[in-house]
Amino acid sequence: MKPGKPNSAHLVDVEKPAAADVSGGRGVLVEVFRVGACGTDREINNAEYGTAPDGEDFLILGHENLGRVVEVGENVTEFAPGNYVVATVRRPCGSSVYDKIGEQHFTTDTEYFERGISRLHGYMAEYYVENAEFLVKVPNALAEVGVLLEPLSIIEKGLKQASDIQERMKVWRPKTAAVLGVGNVGLLAVMALRMRGYAVHGFGREPRDGYLNAELCEAIGATYDSTAEISVEQSTEKYGQYDLIFECTGFSPIIFDAMQSLNENGILLLASVTGGDRKTDQVPSDKINQMFVLGNRAMVGTVNAGREHFEMGVKDLALCEAMHPGWLGRMMTHKIDGLENFARAFDILSNAGKYKAIKTFIEVKRPGRESPV
Ligand SMILES: [Zn+2]
Predict the structure, then answer these.
(1) Which of 27, 177, 210, 232 would you label with 283, given CA atoms 20 to 30 Å apart?
(2) How far is the CA of 35 from the centre of ligand 1 (A)?
């Protein structure tokens, strides 16, 4: 697509990337199996943001990816042809200290280098080449659900930040969590928290009956409540205050409700990108301030993820498949066959309610060969 030009997504022929002779013998050639599509892709196609690589007038979209290694450079020891891999998204091309120490997901630069989003081509392609440093191995048994790893990595980073921050207390044994918004990212948060043994309460606007996302919450041992019937704050009368709240709705006023629903010493994780200019003046600021001060509560944002968060995600996907076989597959509601049908992905993303879509993804090409273990 052409950044800055709405609805300019199109197919282009590009040269197959040269195999593994990049990155000092650390290059890996990957054949793409599936690419997830999400609101970020839709917003880039709407020309809300997105930047082409320097010297080029188009950006290859796609950041949620899963592929299979075809060829490796001479200094790659950790991957072999046939392995499934997911590539991380942000690259340390900026000038901040976090880029320099490999923690570019904490960059303080305002210009990002992100594959499929900003300044670097993405994965909606038949092949890509990447430095082995930025690839994470996915077991063959997770191939059908591995494309969920990138969105899950954002959740894992949030949970890692929560546990790092909560070390301030020496002892923190959280029991209950609320997840606000149970779209595809929220459902992954419900899953990751269930895998850690939390009693999880999911919230969404939709009525419960007939709502697949609510059914998935309950199928994994969480509850679901519609905020049309009960506010998050009111729900604490039923469930108690929450030790951890994960906000994934995209509706910013709800964070004030969440702040008032947090248990003492609890932590609120914010994961929604809200580019609008919504304001709210119905905020009981004295009460919220008092709760945070006297109750040692904390609130932190989470965006992007480093490779350790992808690695955490692989473990949760494996545990979830073992404990609830098929649950992750049920999230993958809309498969689009072939890159040539990309326009259907934007149609589904723009009308997710109508299509009842949770995860929409393009199957670029199903790998034929069986891979070594
Ligand atoms: Zn995404």
Answers:
(1) 177
(2) 10
